[in-house]
């Protein structure tokens, strides 16, 4: 993986056949692993993931400091509820990742933004810029698959973590996105089993 970018981990809940939707995931176990394993400095999310979250947002307790930065890949400027994201109580601040083709943003919109890339957000450039921020050493990707696929294809993922649920034949989205990424060597870091048939697999992407 590039040496000028932070350590990037994609942690996903999946079915046995690699789907990320269509089944009841064990949220408690998923978030327990997040909280005890990586201690992320940055949460990197795609706009689809954030838009799915927006209906649940309300004016929360305010920025969580210390807490990770939430960076959202939003090349089409679809995300609107930035202040509520910032105040949700999970993140210390928010950052919009745009490209030069991103539509004009509303006048007076309050959210820091980083513009990288022409027709779409340049993920490598975005991670390099984020990595120059003090303390931004670990990035955890929050994605239903599409963003993870783009990062894998660009060689920007250091670790893949899969919490495998004992179901199959459900859902439509795969954890690697819309197309299989280039073949890369995967080195097993760790594995564990939990109640209910859950299996946790961690791989280093070489």
Please give a structural write-up.
There is one protein chain. The protein has helices spanning 27-37, 47-53, 82-86, 123-131, 146-153, and strands at residues 7-14, 42-46, 69-73, 93-98, 113-115, 138-142, 159-164, 186-193, 199-205. The protein is an alpha/beta fold and 206 residues long. Strands 5-4-3-2-6-1-7-9-8 form a nine-stranded mixed sheet.
Write the SSE topology:
Blueprint lengths: L6 E8 L12 H11 L4 E5 H7 L15 E5 L8 H5 L6 E6 L14 E3 L7 H9 L6 E5 L3 H8 L5 E6 L21 E8 L5 E7 L1
Parallel strand pairs: 1-6, 1-7, 2-3, 2-6, 3-4, 4-5
Antiparallel strand pairs: 7-9, 8-9
Q: Sheet with the most strands?
A: 9 strands, mixed
Helix/strand-derived category reads: alpha/beta
| Global outline | globular
Q: Kindly report the average pLDDT value.
A: 93
Compute the CA-based radius of gyration.
Answer: 17 Å
Low-confidence stretches: none
Q: What's the helix-strand series?
A: EHEHEHEEHEHEEE
Helix content: 10-25%
Task: Provide a count of the helices.
Answer: 5
The total count of strands amounts to 9
Measure the end-to-end span.
7 Å
Strand content: 25-35%
Short description:
Helix content is 19%, strand content 26%.
What key attributes describe this structure?
206 residues; alpha/beta; 9-stranded mixed sheet; 5 helices; globular
């Amino acid at each position: 993986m590039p040496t000028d970018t932070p350590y990037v981990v994609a942690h996903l809940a999946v079915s046995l056949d690699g789907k990320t939707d269509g089944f009841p995931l064990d949220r408690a176990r998923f978030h327990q692993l997040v909280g005890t394993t990586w201690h992320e400095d940055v949460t990197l999310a795609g706009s689809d993931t954030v838009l799915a979250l927006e209906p649940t947002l309300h004016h929360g307790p305010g920025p969580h400091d210390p807490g990770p930065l939430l960076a959202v890949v939003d090349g089409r400027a679809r995300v609107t509820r930035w202040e509520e994201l910032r105040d949700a109580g999970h993140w210390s601040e928010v950052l919009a990742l745009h490209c030069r083709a991103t539509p004009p943003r509303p006048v007076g919109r309050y959210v820091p933004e980083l513009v990288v890339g022409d027709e779409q957000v340049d993920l490598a450039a975005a991670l390099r810029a984020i990595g120059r921020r003090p303390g931004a050493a670990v990035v955890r990707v929050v994605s239903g698959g599409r963003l993870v696929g783009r990062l894998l294809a660009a060689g920007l993922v250091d670790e893949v973590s899969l919490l495998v649920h004992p179901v199959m034949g459900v859902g439509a989205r795969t954890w690697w996105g819309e197309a299989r990424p280039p073949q890369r060597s995967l080195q097993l870091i760790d594995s564990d089993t939990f109640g209910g048939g859950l299996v946790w697999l961690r791989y280093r992407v070489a």
